[in-house]
Write a structure and sequence with these properties.
single chain; mainly alpha; 3 helical TM bundles of succinate and fumarate reductases; 7 helices; globular
Length: 203
């Protein structure tokens, strides 16, 4: 009983940390990277503005990095212990369940790589740094796959969040929310890929 109770709250905290940590991390990066479509100067100025935030390390650690670490590590535990039973859901929702786990693993690896090569590289993050990274075809496609995976994981995770927290209870509400978050995914995926391409077009 105690184990089930703890597991329930661990999963609730995992769900909440995904919306907060992954959401903040993802949306902030999409916004920042999208400024590259206006040129190197616009991107560099946006990055400089972010780095001028008071107590930035504390804000990032408390609201992004620590929740992100918990969500990622516990998410890996869920991904490798979850049963993939096609009879548990309908065909479509079962595939969403599987893809959520797969994109979660990809996103976790991608975020670690991204932070290591940018935020914690010891170098100043600027347009040229990112342009140099994506100039390597291997890194470029890894960035594309990582960004799209992160966006899918976030969008589909929002659908699951609404279900598990009792916001979309009935089949109709869940079906409508699936369409909404599907469009949400497509829009953000376009924004994310377009932002990466900006570093190749204007490098």
């Amino acid at each position: 009983m105690q184990s089930s109770y703890q597991d329930f709250w661990f999963r609730r905290l995992h769900s909440l940390s995904g919306v907060v940590a992954v959401g903040l991390f993802l949306l902030e990066h999409l916004f920042t990277n999208s400024t590259a479509t206006n040129g190197a100067a616009a991107f560099n100025q946006t990055v400089a503005n972010l780095h001028s935030i008071p107590y930035l390390v504390v804000v990032e650690s408390v609201f992004i990095f620590l929740p992100l670490l918990y969500h990622g590590v516990y998410g890996l535990y869920i991904a490798f212990t979850a049963g993939y039973n096609a009879t548990r859901f309908g065909w479509f929702r079962n595939w969403m369940f599987v893809l959520q786990r797969i994109t979660g693993v990809i996103t976790f690896v991608f975020v670690i790589f991204h932070l290591y090569t940018t935020r914690f590289s010891g170098n100043t993050v600027n347009f040229q740094m990112v342009a140099d990274i994506v100039s390597n075809p291997l890194y470029f496609w890894f960035m594309i796959i990582g960004v799209v995976s992160a966006i899918f994981h976030f969008a589909n995770g929002l659908w699951s969040f609404c279900v598990h927290w009792g916001w979309t209870v009935g089949p109709r509400a869940q079906r409508v929310s699936a369409y909404v978050f599907g469009v949400f995914f497509l829009v953000l995926a376009f924004v994310g890929v377009n932002a990466i391409l900006a570093f190749t077009h204007q490098a």
